[in-house]
Specification:
By secondary structure, this protein is α+β, with helices and mostly antiparallel strands. It is about 40% helix and about 20% strand. The radius of gyration is 23 Å and the shape is elongated.
């Protein structure tokens, strides 16, 4: 059996980190393929990947060499511990580029996540922290960059942007990424931005909040604005969001000269749950020239990275329960899980991701169809 058109073709040139050790018994390509297939089917660690390989050995041998059978869990762990994570990630992006994913007008959310189980307190090793890029419309993880901790996201975001062709897309980032240099970087890459504005920008936030309050009190009589109101409700929750876009920002540019700024967005939300009411006002800076009815959905799209990526990685792929901790292994195993996630997302059918993983484990033909893309 051959997996024609398989995404594994993009990993055929991956350098084997054991190249100077002439005693290794298993091909790195076999190790990689088994690891990804096993992860698609629900494996959460090296021992489970080995057991998957043993259960599927007859099927795997139809398209893998397996010169010495299925590698042991120690072999899987050793390979991914020393494998260069940047080279591995590069192969992943090469596959994504081959799909010709259209990112024009796509909302690309950038956000960080800590893999809590990857740390080791006894050795003083902090858990792995990654900043990821998520394509909201295509529902795909595009790239990731490792950082030491959440406070270093500011330096990781430009590196992440350099990995991607974001021309024509809209980059959304939470308040951590609301930085002048990051805004400039996005503009230079011919993309637009929507950046959450909080207290980390000091007088900029204060000026925006004061101006918005003054104009609101006057009914925005002195400003050109657009506004839109939406109401959502489910499971006893009713949420009303009022999006107000202030298109006159000359006053702000005189004081702060923010790169590419075209508008300030104010979102007033009112959430009612079982009789309890919560209200919040959030501010955003944007380079978009866009009315509120269109900007509101862009802002809400940012949270897709929390709901469709981070939450899924925790609840479906058990990120925080994973105990892969040694050297490069946490970053590489996270890349494997992101591969599995993207592949399952692309699989046809309306089944949940959790059910698709189970069906892939039961049905070899379905599993083959997932990776033959």
């Amino acid at each position: 059996m051959a997996l024609a058109g398989t995404f594994f073709e993009h990993f055929s040139d991956l350098k084997d980190p054991r190249i100077h050790n002439h005693n290794f018994r298993h091909n790195i390509f076999d190790v990689l393929v088994i690891a990804v297939l096993a992860t698609i089917c629900g494996a959460d660690g090296w021992a489970e990947i080995e057991r998957f390989g043993e259960a599927k050995q007859e099927w795997l041998s139809t398209f893998l060499e397996l010169p010495h059978g299925i590698p042991s869990h120690d072999t899987f762990g050793r390979v991914f511990t020393i494998l260069n994570p940047q080279e591995f990630e590069k192969c992943f992006r090469a596959w994504l580029n081959s799909l010709s994913v259209d990112l024009v007008k796509e909302v690309i959310a950038l956000d960080g996540k800590t893999i809590r189980g990857s740390g080791n307190k006894r050795r003083g090793e902090s858990p792995l922290h990654l900043v990821s890029a998520w394509a909201a419309k295509n529902r795909m993880m595009l790239a990731q960059v490792k950082t030491e901790d959440k406070s270093n996201e500011i330096t990781a975001i430009p590196k992440l942007l350099d990995l991607l062709d974001v021309k024509g897309s809209v980059i959304t980032i939470d308040a951590m990424g609301c930085q002048r240099d990051i805004a400039q970087k996005i503009i230079e890459k011919k993309a637009d931005y929507v950046l959450a504005l909080k207290g980390n920008q000091g007088t900029l936030r204060d000026d925006v909040e004061l101006f918005a309050a003054e104009q609101k009190a006057r009914g925005f009589a002195d400003s050109k604005i657009s506004q839109d109101t939406t109401v959502d409700g489910d499971h006893g929750r009713i949420e009303t969001r009022k999006t107000i876009v202030i298109h006159d920002v000359g006053w702000l540019q005189e004081r702060h000269n923010w790169p590419g700024l075209q508008a300030v967005v104010m979102v007033e939300s009112r959430r009612e749950i079982q009789g309890k009411i919560e209200q919040e006002t959030r501010f955003y800076l944007t380079s978009l020239v866009m009315i509120a009815a269109l900007l509101g959905p862009v802002i809400r799209s940012h949270w897709a990275i929390e709901n469709s990526l981070h939450w899924v990685m925790d609840m479906v792929f058990r990120d925080d329960e994973c105990r892969v901790r040694t050297e490069h292994a946490p970053a590489n195993f996270t890349t494997i899980k992101h591969m599995a996630h993207n592949l399952i997302r692309k699989a046809p059918g309306k089944d949940s991701l959790r059910l698709k993983r189970k069906v892939a484990a039961w049905d070899d033909d379905f599993l083959a169809s997932i990776v033959s893309t």
